[in-house]
Design a protein that fits this description.
With 221 residues, this protein is an all-alpha fold. The protein has 7 helices and no strands. Helices cover 88% and strands 0% of the residues. It is rod-shaped, with a radius of gyration of 27 Å.
Length: 221
């Protein structure tokens, strides 16, 4: 089964969070084994818990900013994720100083891969948003031109194309793709039959261009 970038993000996030929690439990177990709970040991345990909390909070905050980006698509959330990853790495460095180099290296490596994966998703999302804006602009322009021709059937065809296009853009409705293919085929066939002279080839070219842009959006989804 193919693992998507979103899947990798979730698996990486879960693994890092689990590892950070394990370190916290490890510190508690180590303390219980100390026969003489010296002030030094207690202080070290307190530091351990503080740094583990810093890592865990950073992970949860990064996940929250990631979700905000996926919902709103605003670049500021990408910067927030970067800041949270920096917080995680700082906590890892502090944990390493307490003698947990191997475990903290694993956490830092997971966090790094998580961030790389997130940036891939962010770039894809931004490209998709740009293409969606371009697609809507093309659709509106084509609809206006068909309206000027005065052929009601062509205009209704184009309205169907745009409706199914919006179903996919807004709701990621996979079923809308098949309906859209059919609507575009109908529109092109009706353009071929319409008595619009030299505009015929130009409009069919515009419809094909609309579909090419939409195909790129589908590929990024």
């Amino acid at each position: 089964m193919k693992v998507t970038i979103f899947g990798k993000l979730l698996m990486g996030f879960g693994a890092v969070l689990l590892l950070a929690s394990f370190l916290g439990l490890l510190g508690l177990y180590s303390l219980s084994e100390v026969r003489e709970r010296s002030r030094k040991a207690v202080h070290k345990y307190a530091q351990l818990q503080m740094y583990v909390k810093q890592i865990r909070d950073g992970l949860l905050e990064a996940r929250g900013s990631e979700k905000d980006f996926l919902i709103k698509g605003e670049r500021k959330y990408v910067r927030q994720v970067k800041e949270r990853i920096g917080k995680i790495k700082e906590g890892c460095q502090k944990l390493s100083a307490l003698g947990f180099e191997r475990r903290t290296w694993e956490i830092a490596a997971f966090a790094h891969e998580y961030y790389k994966g997130f940036l891939q998703v962010a770039d894809m999302m931004e490209e998709k948003l740009k293409l969606a804006r371009r697609l809507r602009k093309k659709g509106a322009s084509l609809e206006d031109r068909l309206g000027e021709v005065g052929d009601r059937k062509l205009l209704l065809d184009m309205l169907s194309v745009r409706r199914y296009g919006e179903d996919f853009l807004l709701y990621n409705d996979v079923d809308a793709i098949a309906r859209l293919r059919e609507a575009i085929a109908t529109l092109k066939a009706d353009i071929e039959r319409a008595p619009i002279g030299p505009l015929k080839a130009e409009m069919i070219g515009d419809v094909d261009d609309y579909w090419r842009v939409l195909s790129r959006v589908i590929a990024l989804s």
